[in-house]
Prior knowledge:
The chain has 266 residues and is α+β, with helices and mostly antiparallel strands. The protein is 33% helix and 17% strand. The strands form two sheets. A seven-stranded antiparallel β-sheet has the order 1-9-8-4-5-6-7. The longest helix is centred in the first third of the chain and has 25 residues, at 59-83.
Amino acid sequence: MGLSPYARAWRAGIVACGLAWFGPADLRAETPERSAPVEMPLQSPEPFGLAASSLSSGGLRDKWTSVQRRLDDEMVQLALCEGDRDGCVSPAALKFLDIVDAARLREGRARLGEINRAINLAIRPMGDLAQHGQIDVWTSPLATLARGGGDCEDYAIAKFVALRRAGLAPDDLRIVVLRDTIHGEDHAVAAARLDGRWLTLDNRRMAMVEDADVRNFRPTFVIGQHGVMRYADAPLLTDASGNNSVASLVVSSLATSASPPFERAD
Length: 266
């Protein structure tokens, strides 16, 4: 059986998604001897267990604030369409509501997986320059579905909103910006907490991956109900062999790079 157009587009678009260049950051990973007693620090409730501090300004915060304003309008449109689907004039709103309805029929991990799969197939991978004529444009879910295309942050935003409407608590939802240390690009994913563990919902794969199992990425920023936050430390998430050849960098490079020019690397 042949793949659907959406499935072909999704498979063809499994490429790195460039966001803003936030600058590299790392901590040197040191492993204590097994016999030595180690006092474990309290783990952060954020994905990847890292502490994060709020950003009061910067390009990333401005982009998210703009998305939130558009979300307010879209929530009104969704409410109207949900109350009168026959009279709804927005095909994008109806498609979004169908995705949420299908997810509500499932529980737990299956609910998250339903939204991850449906959003991945509903949006064609497409760079901002080709779609908007400029780089790094963040769009709200209905705008993305109406265009039919988007890049990694557009997928992540759509999943973030869909998961919330499907019943997940705000404290259990995030958007995480990660630095791809192999390709030198930034990538955004949605993250959802289930049974105390964070799962990442990535536009480049159907399977959800627990944050502890993510490799070759460095988490840099996290977005949630408390706004945009920057991770206080950003260790390299090494490959399965534990190879960490660039872990000698320090996190101070983040301090001056919260609002740089944006690059595309689609």
